[in-house]
Amino acid sequence: MKEMTCEKLETITGGTTSISGTILNAFKNIVELLRGAGYSLGSSIRRIGENNLCPLE
Question: The whole model's pTM is what?
Answer without folding.
Answer: 0.57
